Amino acid sequence: MAQDVIDQTAWRPQTRLVRGGTNRSSFEETSEALFMTSGYVYGSAEEAEAAFKGENNHFVYSRFANPTVQMFESRLALLEAAALCKATATGMAAVFGALACHLRSGDRLVASRALFGSCLHVCTEILPGFGITTELVDGRDLNAWRRALSQPTAAVFLETPSNPMLEIVDLEAVAAMAHDAGARVVVDNVFASPILQKPLALGADVVVYSATKHIDGQGRALGGAVLTNDAEWVETKLVPFLRHTGPALSPFNAWLLLKGLETLDLRMERHCRNARTLAERLGQRNDLDRVLYPALASHPQHELAMRQMREGGSIVTLELAGGRDAAFKFLNALTLIDISNNLGDAKSLATHPATTTHQRLTLEQRAELGISDGTVRLSIGLEDVDDLTDDIEHALSVAG
Fold it and tell me: What is the pTM (predicted TM-score) of this model?
């Protein structure tokens, strides 16, 4: 039976990850086809005219749409339980596209202050250049959200858990306040992944991903995605913006991301199990000032995290007492875990946020977020957890 007549929404999540969105060509291939083409041909001038008028389903140009990219979009939408998905070349293209297509000069954006460095730059440097006012709030503080949203607001942007201090934002409460203020809620869900958290079900209007992270999860490809249930917003705002500004996902990367989705659930299960085990072991040590992991009862927002998420995720954040010197000694002593600014990879990775991902923040901004010179972010991969433990404990002994 042809897959296009099957109700794929009736499938359970693991089946959607493996088979969702697949559209076989006339060759009936088992793996999704890779359509490495920039353009398409037409059987007649009339067919071409109809395609450009949107009167048929003929592909026009791969900057607009591509069969392989479309399969990735369909599969991710099924997983997210979203009506629509538009893929982008990177996660930052997804973030900027979701905000810039919606905001206009004179509009007001309220955002959580705990954002990835590039997201913060977009909100505080780029968008204000277009006449958009941005107000940052402590995402953990519902009263701060309430005050900020007491006046008309066009959009709210936040990430939860946050990078790198794993702050949790109450999605249901913030979404309700935002909607009362007339705002569209955009959530960066990259740390949780679509496996662990469903922002749309908690009241968000738009979800964005860096598919580079867990969705690919193997350090191969850049990609991003914007998902929503609002068809009118996609048709009138998002699609025209993406179509004419050109942050298109390459067909090859879309194919890699499709293959990544097939194993996402299995990988997230191992990521979370390894991360929880490590966090529990490290939490018992006396040579660390702090160990942050949402699934640990010691996390200051543990109850909220577990109400919103299935598990704690792949990120464990450490606080070394000796500041930058101790952090650098720790990082340089790692022999199995790599130093890298990426995350969500099959390989475990370690990052010093103060000198890499968040180094453009002022000292005051980093202090507000709790990022010190001794902060180390660990992205826990799929290796044997005992080998990871041995590597971390050895590095801690060197760091003193």
Answer: 0.94
